[in-house]
From TrEMBL:
It comes from Oncorhynchus kisutch (Coho salmon). This is P2X purinoceptor. Keywords: ATP-binding, Cell membrane, Disulfide bond, Glycoprotein, Ion channel, Ion transport, Ligand-gated ion channel, Membrane, Nucleotide-binding, Receptor, Transmembrane, Transmembrane helix, Transport. InterPro entries: P2X_extracellular_dom_sf (IPR027309), P2X_purnocptor (IPR001429), P2X_receptor (IPR059116), P2X_RECEPTOR_CS (IPR053792). Receptor for ATP that acts as a ligand-gated ion channel. ATP binds at residues 68-70, 187, 294-296, 314. The gene is p2rx7. It catalyses: Ca(2+)(in) = Ca(2+)(out). Gene3D superfamilies: atp-gated p2x4 ion channel (1.10.287.940), atp-gated p2x4 ion channel domain (2.60.490.10).
Length: 367
C-alpha cells in the first residue's frame, strides 16, 4: 500500500494493475442490474431523444410581416352625413410594423377653430369669478390655456375660459352600437416570410403554387381552406371567443399568432404556419377602467377666408397584432449541409429559389 521501495522502483515502473471482475449468479441482483440498465436506456431514448429531441440542432425564427386590408362600409350620421368608407378612411395608419388598425366606432367634433371657450366642468375648472381662474395656467389634463376669465358653461355652471380648439370635444356620448358595422366582413391579406439562418431555410405563408386567381377568391377556413392567407375579420375575432360587434363598440387588441415550429428531419412540405387568435387587452369586468382601444386624429381644412378649421375624431377600433414565433429542429439536414464533403452540392439541390416574376413559378401574385 505504501508504494515501491527505492530498491525495487525499477520493477514497479514496469508493472501493470488491472481490475478483477467477479460474476455473481443471483436472480435478484441480476434483475436489479438489468432494470437499472433498462431505465437508463428508456430515459435516453424515450425522453431525451423522442420527447425532448435533444439530439437535434435548433434555430430561432427571423420573420417579416406585411398586411393589406380590403372592404368598404357605409354610415349616415348627423355629424358626417351619408358617406362611404374605404380602406384609406378606416385603416389608420395604412402601414404598420406587424400590426394594423381598423376603425369601427367614433366620436366626431366638427368645425373646431383656434378660439376661446369655457373649459369642460370638473373640480379644478369650475369657478365663481375671474379670481378663481389663473391666466396662463395649463392643466395637462385640460383642453387649453386659461385666459383668466370665468365664463358661463351652462345656465347653472361657470368654468374658466381657455384658449383652445373650440368647441371642445365631449367624449362621453359614445354610440351604443358600432358605426362601421360592415367592418366584420372586411378581409386582410397577411404576407409572412420566415428564415432559419443556421439551416439556410426560407419559407412563406403563401405557398409556391398560389397565383392571383386563387387569392382573388379564397378565404381562410380551418377545415376547407387552411392555406389561404386572406382572413375575414369577424372569423378571427370569433376564433378568439369574442363577439365582433360587441368588441367594435369600444375597440380592443387582437393577437394573430403564427406558429412556425418545424422539424426539418421530415420533408419540407410538413413545415408550415399554424394560425391561432387571442384577445390581448384587458376585458375583466372587475377592472374595466379605460376599456378598449382608442386614439384621436384630426382632419384640417381652410375656410374661404383662409381661417384654419378641423374635424376632430376620437377613433375606436380593433388593433390586430401579428405575432410570429417558432423554432426549427434538424439533425440529418444540418449534418448533410455542414459536415459532408459535398455540402455545397447538396445545398444547391436541397433549396430552390423562386422568382415571383418567373413564368415557371406561376404568374405574379397581386391582391
Amino acid at each position: 500500500m505504501g508504494g515501491c521501495s527505492s530498491q525495487s522502483c525499477h520493477r514497479c515502473f514496469f508493472e501493470y494493475e488491472t481490475e478483477r471482475m467477479i460474476v455473481v449468479k443471483s436472480k435478484v441482483v441480476g434483475s436489479v442490474f438489468r432494470l437499472i440498465q433498462f431505465l437508463i436506456l428508456f430515459y435516453v431514448i424515450g425522453y431525451v431523444c423522442v420527447v425532448q429531441k435533444s439530439y437535434q440542432e435548433t434555430d430561432s425564427v427571423i420573420s417579416s410581416v406585411t398586411t393589406k386590408v380590403k372592404g368598404t362600409g357605409f354610415t349616415n350620421t348627423s355629424d358626417l352625413g351619408a358617406r362611404v368608407w374605404d380602406v384609406a378612411d378606416y385603416n389608420i395608419p395604412p402601414q404598420g410594423e406587424s400590426s394594423f388598425f381598423v376603425l369601427t366606432n367614433m366620436i366626431v367634433t366638427p368645425n373646431q377653430t383656434q378660439s376661446t371657450c369655457p373649459e369642460l366642468p370638473n373640480q379644478s375648472t369650475i369657478c365663481m369669478s375671474d379670481s378663481d381662474c389663473l391666466e396662463g395656467s395649463n392643466d395637462v389634463r385640460g383642453n387649453g390655456i386659461q385666459t383668466g376669465l370665468c365664463m358661463n358653461y351652462s345656465e347653472t355652471v361657470k368654468t374658466c375660459q381657455v384658449l383652445s380648439w373650440c368647441p371642445l370635444e365631449i367624449d362621453i356620448n359614445l354610440p351604443e352600437h358600432a358605426l362601421l358595422v360592415a367592418a366584420e366582413d372586411f378581409t386582410v391579406l397577411i404576407k409572412n416570410s420566415v428564415t432559419y439562418p443556421k439551416f439556410n431555410f426560407h419559407k412563406r405563408n403563401i405557398l409556391p403554387d398560389v397565383n392571383s386567381s386563387y387569392l382573388k377568391q379564397c378565404e381562410f377556413n380551418r377545415k376547407t381552406d387552411p392555406d389561404c392567407p386572406i382572413f375575414r375579420l369577424k372569423d378571427m375575432v370569433s376564433e378568439a371567443e369574442e363577439d365582433f360587434q360587441t368588441m367594435a363598440i369600444r375597440g380592443g387588441v387582437l393577437g394573430i399568432m403564427i406558429d412556425w415550429n418545424c422539424d426539418l428531419d421530415w420533408p419540407e412540405h410538413y413545415c408550415g404556419p399554424k394560425y391561432s387568435f387571442r384577445r390581448l387587452d384587458n376585458k375583466i369586468p372587475e377592472n374595466n377602467v379605460a376599456p378598449g382601444y382608442n386614439f384621436r386624429f384630426a382632419k384640417y381644412y381652410k375656410t374661404t377666408d383662409g381661417r384654419e378649421t378641423r374635424t376632430l375624431i376620437k377613433a375606436y377600433g380593433i388593433r390586430f397584432d401579428v405575432i410570429v414565433f417558432g423554432t426549427v429542429n434538424a439533425v440529418c439536414s444540418w449534418f448533410l449541409l455542414t459536415c459532408t464533403k459535398r455540402r455545397d452540392y447538396y445545398s444547391k439541390h436541397k433549396f430552390t429559389y423562386l422568382d415571383n416574376t418567373d413564368d415557371n413559378a406561376g404568374e405574379p401574385v397581386s391582391y
